[in-house]
Amino acid sequence: MARDAAVSREKSTGNGAGDGARKQHSLPDKNTCRAVLAKMMLIRRFEERAGEMYAKAKIGGFLHLCIGEEATIVGSTQAMRESDYLLSTYREHGQALARGTHPNAVMAELFGRVDGCSKGRGGSMHLFDMERRFLGGYGIVGGNLPLATGVALQCDYNETPDAVVCMFGDGATNQGTFGESMNMAALWKLPVVFMVINNQFGMGTALERHSAVTDLSKKAEGYGVPGSRCDGMDVLDVHAATTEALRKAREDRQPQLLEAVTYRFRGHSMADPEEYRTKDEVEEWRRRDPIASFSHRLVEEDVFSQEDIDKLDQEAIATVDESVQFADNSPFPDLDSLYDDLYVLGEQVRGWWSVDERSPEPHRGEREREAGRVPHELAEAGAAYAGVGEAQERKRRQRQTDGSQAETSGQMRDEEGGGD
Hints:
- The chain has 15 helices and 9 strands.
- The protein has helices at 2-12, 30-55, 70-78, 93-99, 103-110, 144-157, 176-187, 207-210, 235-251, 279-286, 290-300, 306-329, 373-385, 391-402, 409-417, and strands at residues 85-87, 164-169, 192-198, 201-202, 205-206, 227-231, 256-261, 355-356, 363-364.
- α2 crosses α3 (70-78).
């Protein structure tokens, strides 16, 4: 049933036509076509390599890939101004790359390294790049909607021309934060576009089984937020729909709900056995692969040759190769930095905001750097035993800190217990 419904939605997505007919948008100029295709290829190759690195245990925690959703990501971000803000979900590697965060910084973040865009402290689900106004990366389903509403309030309050795009999955439309955010955005007439990336499944639950309303573009009408729908497998359709939604949000001060109907070709995460869908269903959607479809049209209309397409793909692969090497060479964050940048620190409210219990003498986490040698040695030994970090790199940094070549007993444990 889920498969039939998914295919039915795919056929009826055609820009609201309802008869299965898809509108074909005119191609942009050649340079724009190149930029769009190059971004989609970079995201695809980056995600494929991230999956490989996860299998090699280079990446810890969870990993959510966006393979299949490249048109939705690139089409929407291309419609944004540089000064606009973007908030996304935990499936956000592509969004960071599309906004211009360097692939080296994104891969290093996935590796948990200090040169990552969140300094190795966020990992896959918490990418962040303030310079490009990419405000994350959130691990909580629907948790970014109220935050996006607040950012939009800031834009309105300060009377800037900026707008906000908030992306979330179809499952997040069932969260309480969805209704609360829609109501406030409509009430205060905020410049925000809420974009549902409807990839057909909330984790492993098909849309028909988790939402009474399956046309998600209509789900905020009762709150005063009008909706529209676009073909999330067509980068030009996503771009056109997002451009119009942003215009209405920015100029008319009317928040918008935009549903991009798409499909993820991989499981929810790397641990997903995908027992909730058939290979035939995945294969049917793969026939509309957004990169292959756009490439085919560019060749068919003599914008690029197949050799040009292949060259762009090779460039994407080379860029990703470099990012893996960069991430591998980047050090892990210093263990003493474990409690840096905590939200609440200082003397204004007294108390222990964090407690480090890795040594016989528990101490305030915020004073980790003052804890002395024994806690430091024990922390290093524990990290080495758990296989976290690189023993040689930590030893080198320790020597620099100590200002001597003497090897401490902790360093000896580091070597012996290291799981590298």
